[in-house]
Amino acid sequence: MVKPVFTSRSIPMSEPQPTDPVPSYPVPTYSAYQVPDGPKVPTSPPYSPPAEVPAATDKPIELETWKSDADRKSAGVPTPLPAEERVGYALVGLGHLTLEEILPALSTCRKSKSVALVSGNPEKLQKVARQYGIKSENCFSYETYDQLKDNAEVQVIYIVLPNSMHAEFTIRGARAGKHILCEKPMANSVAECQAMIDACQQSNRKLMIAYRIQYEPYNRYVREQVQKQEFGKPKFVDAYNCQSSANPRHWRHIKALAGGGALPDIGLYCLNTTRFILGEEPVEVSAYVHSDPDNPLFREVEEVCTWQMKFPSGVIAQCATHYNVHEARQYRVMTERGGYELAQAYAYSGQKLTTSRADGAIVRQEQVSITPKNQFAMEMDVFSACILEDKVPYSGGEEGLQDQRIMEAIYQSARERRPIPLPIIEKKDAFRGQEPELD
Q1: pLDDT tens, 157-211?
Q2: In 311-384, at which residue ranges do the beta strands (DSSP E only) sit?
Q3: Which residue is catalytic, options 184, 323, 331, 340?
Q4: Which class would CATH give 83-210?
Q5: What CATH number is given for 215-372+396-421 in this structure?
Q6: 373 is known as an active-site residue
Q7: Annotated catalytic residue: which of 269, 323, 331, 346?
């Protein structure tokens, strides 16, 4: 049944009166409200729109429809858990990502909340705690980090530290009885990744790597369409993720802390997202690495890395990453009868998707618009759901370990100037856990 929509207007007596049947609704009786120390204003009895209100907190309130199917549906009413039921997070490291993205995102989460902070800078720690209402007793240094074991409010530790610190703080956190969400790259070596997985398994704690792209709506849409072979089989992927840099003293330019340069920091998005979209693993890589010898930014880490990946299905992926050019983040997936091009593919927001396909004598290009969502809030709520519902994380430790194996093969190929074969993995999505339920 279509609910009526009303528009108020004055009808002059000389104008013909409407003859269509009008639904019978009570006509509000208008009166006047005296504004204190002001004029009288019209008023009517309070009106509350009809709504269906399920008792369960995870079921949305259903409001009456007021738009037709001609418009895109709204995102719907959020269903946040009560604060006391949300999963408590301790954020370890208060750098750019935590302060600019993660902490603000937590305020929009439905299943997650910030309850503790860990930092090596006492002044920064105290200020951020005041800003976000974190209790002083829930603020820890790197030296007192292990005391999180006795804090019942903390269920998850989110590791947002330089790459070289990921393994140590993951292992210590798991031994403290906490689940671990770790930023990418997982670590600086295959051995470190495996040690992190082992520590979490031994402590019966969950481990998830923060591959936010795997939960971002546009990238998930491209994966879905490619997997369905909407435009035929995928044949070629062209991906690049590039940005500039300016501070040679930043930890990302110190190999002992970062493990590498552009590849593990931003090139990893090209690698992981290509694997995610195709749902298969490369069987061979071939790479080239270069750094300007006169640029102090790249005394220890690479400036640019390009590589090709060959997949069992025959798909070839051409990837590139650069630390010294204007920002560019994009990929194209070319298929038998069309293609997908995602601009700002790896950015925190602003994705723009274009599809193209032949339609007789013309090439039809279409812009796909999807309601954007906060990627950090989504990944944290996905992990919280895994804890609340005892599910295997979709982007678990094995996913991060596989990326590290491939990155090491990429570096080997660049050093030895030859293609490097990789183990053949026949299983689809071999290193991923249970498919997440996303709103």
Answers
A1: 999 999 999 999 999 999 999 999 999 999 999 999 999 999 999 999 999 999 9
A2: 316-322, 328-335, 338-343, 352-359, 362-368
A3: 184
A4: alpha beta
A5: 3.30.360.10
A6: no
A7: 269
